[in-house]
Amino acid sequence: MVFNVQVMRAIAATLVVWVHTQELIVTDVLPHWLRSFGYGGVDLFFVISGFIMVRTTQNKNIRPIQFYRKRILRVAPLYAFFTILIVILSATMPDVLNSTQIEVSQIAKSLVFFPFEKTPDSLYPIYYLGWTLNYEMFFYSIFAVALLLPKRARLMAITAVIVSLAGIGNSIGGLSDYGVAAFFYTRPILMDFVLGVLAASYFHDSARTARNPMRWWLCLAAGVSWLAFGGEVIGFGDVPVSPPTDTFLRFGIASGLIVAGVVGLEQSGTRIGSPLMQRAGDASYSIYLSHYFFIAAVIAVANRLELNDAARALLAPATMAAAVAVGFATYHLLERPFAGDLGIYQRLARLFVAPPPMQPRAITEEAVMGTTRKVQRPDALESDSQSKTT
To answer: Where does the record place the region Disordered (predicted)?
Structure first.
């Protein structure tokens, strides 16, 4: 299941890149569906995150603190780097970033993944792409507490808590009702994680899906169609608060169908995508966090050169490809050396925290089949991001 899910992570990151590349195209020459479906990249990230967290802990006796520490060391360093970079750029080039003076409290809240009202009805952190990480870390908190429960009760507890929060959110119409945190942590977008959790629970028994790949092709096709064209039927919701978080019906269900489809296909013996897309999935977190800096620079140059609409449209595909390449470079130069399994922060943490007891190595499908291909470790699935999503 590693390959197809990694490919989906690459696609999710590319969707987010597409959303921001559109800012290069000034005139509204693209059809509505082509402009809007990229916003589903965030929901796809969240569904994948729920799936990965369950699959990478199903057969482990992992402690909540151990789990959360690992997630912090995986997510926080790269995000802190880009947040501090934004602070520096805001101080040195405020006109370029169109930024107001950043308060110390805003920096602190951003770095600890706590939502706040940066401007009226706007709940973005200092580096605004980090709003998705606020949801990721909240989900990790729920997941970590659930690890205290017996394995059979964990998924039910996670599902019950998130569904309850989303239900409560129906009675919270704005920030003035109960405050920022109450509004932010009760949005329908949280349900995306539940779909990933349920998918991981269902596919835990591979015998269910080993046959009849056609139904998973149909599931994938339905999800892609819904993601692309569902906007003609379902909107984003009418809550006047940014970012848009009432996207469960519009993008979340579609993302759930897509993840179920690709996982079912792989368990049925069918892979989608290419090895390059799998590697892009490995780098998806870096692509997500780094791409906007490059795209913003391209837009600034295009504006300075006063490029016309045709030139901007032609420049868009190259900008997307280059932004992904920058993400690859970020992954190899920053994320892996600092936040990977053998990164600096992981090594420092191991100096002060006793390693967990050795776990017996799981028997992989490749080992059973007698293949010699190197098997990617389950940890390679974890990076989040997405948890990007826009």
So the answer is: 364-390
